[in-house]
Amino acid sequence: MAKKGKKYRAALERIEADRQYSPKAGFSLLKEIDQAGYDATIDCAFRLGIDPRKADQMVRGAVALPHGIGKSVTVAVVAGGDKATEARDAGADHVGADDLVEQLQAGDLIDELDSIIATPDMMGKLGRLGKVLGPRGLMPNPKSGTVTMDVGKAISEIKAGRVEYRSDRNGNVHAVLGKASFSTEQLVENYAAILDELIRQRPSSAKGRYLQTVAISTSASPSIALDPARSRDLLEDDEA
User: Between the CA atoms of 194, 177, 221 and 36, what dihedral angle is there, to the nearest 10 degrees?
Assistant: First the structure.
C-alpha cells in the first residue's frame, strides 16, 4: 500500500476515529481538511442492510439534488423521429438512433458520457450493449428514469443535477454530492435528498438495520463517518 503524504496524515489526525459526526459537523470538517488543491468532488458511501444476492433487494433509482453536483453533465439520447428532435431541443449532447448505437458499440463517446437516455423502442438494440454500458453505470433503466418517452424532461433533470444510484454486490451505494466549493449547507441539503430517497426505496424484504454506515470523503481525503441514524434536523449542530 502506498504511503500517505503529510497532508493526508494531518487530515486524518483531525478526525475522531470512534465518532459518528452529524451531517453538518461532518461536511464542515471535510471542507476544512480538504487539501486537494483543486475543487474536489465530494462522495458519499452508504452501507445498506440488504442481501445483494436477492433481486428484490436491489436498491436502484435516481434523485434530483437541490444544488446539483457542480459539474457539466454530458448526455446522449438514443431515439429517432420526433423524440430525437425533442432531445436536441432540450440540450442533449449526442442524439441518434441506430447510428448512435453503433458508435457506442464501437466504444466511441463512452468515456465522455455521464448518462444515456433511450426511448423504449430502442432498448432492444441498446440492450445488446449491456456488457459495455452496465459496468460504467450507463445502461438506461426505467427505474432511474432513463428509459422514457419524455426525453426532454429527463434531459432537463439530469442536466440540473439528478444523480443515479445503484447498490453494488456488497450492498453499498455510492453517490456524488457536490464539490468542495459548495457551502456546508448545500452539501447537507444534497445529502438529505439522497438519504430520504434511499430510505424511501428500502426493500420490504430487507430485515434488521437498513442504514448501517455512512461515510463521506473527497478523492484526496480520509473518510469521515456520519451518524446513519441522523435523518432529521440535519443542519443542527452536534449536541454537546
Answer: 180
Residue 71 CB-half CA count within 13 A: 17
Distance CA(85)–CA(106), nearest Å, equals 24
Cell of residue 156, nine digits: 432537463
Please provide residue 128's backbone torsions phi and psi, each rounded to the nearest 5 degrees.
-70, -15
Strand partners, 163: 63
Which candidate, 147, 134, 165, places its Cα nearest to that of 64? 165
Beta bridge partners of 63: 163
Residue 76, SS3?
strand
Contact 198/76 with Cβ under 8 angstroms?
no
Evaluate whether 207 touches 78 at the Cβ level (below 8 Å): no
Q: Largest Cα–Cα distance of the chain, in whole Å?
A: 61
**pTM higher than 0.90, yes or no?**
no
Question: Quick one: cell of 170?
Answer: 456488497
- Cα dist from 156 to 64, 169, 230, whole Å: 11, 31, 31
Residue 199 has φ and ψ, to the nearest 5°, of -65, -40
pLDDT digits (tens, 9 = 90+) for 101-132: 999 998 888 889 989 999 999 999 998 898 88
141 to each of 123, 219, 237, how far by Cα in Å? 9, 28, 38
How many Å apart are CA 104 and CA 1, to the nearest integer?
36
C-alpha cell at 104: 457506442
Q: What is the pLDDT of residue 107?
A: 84
CA distance linking residue 165 with residue 198, whole number of Å: 9
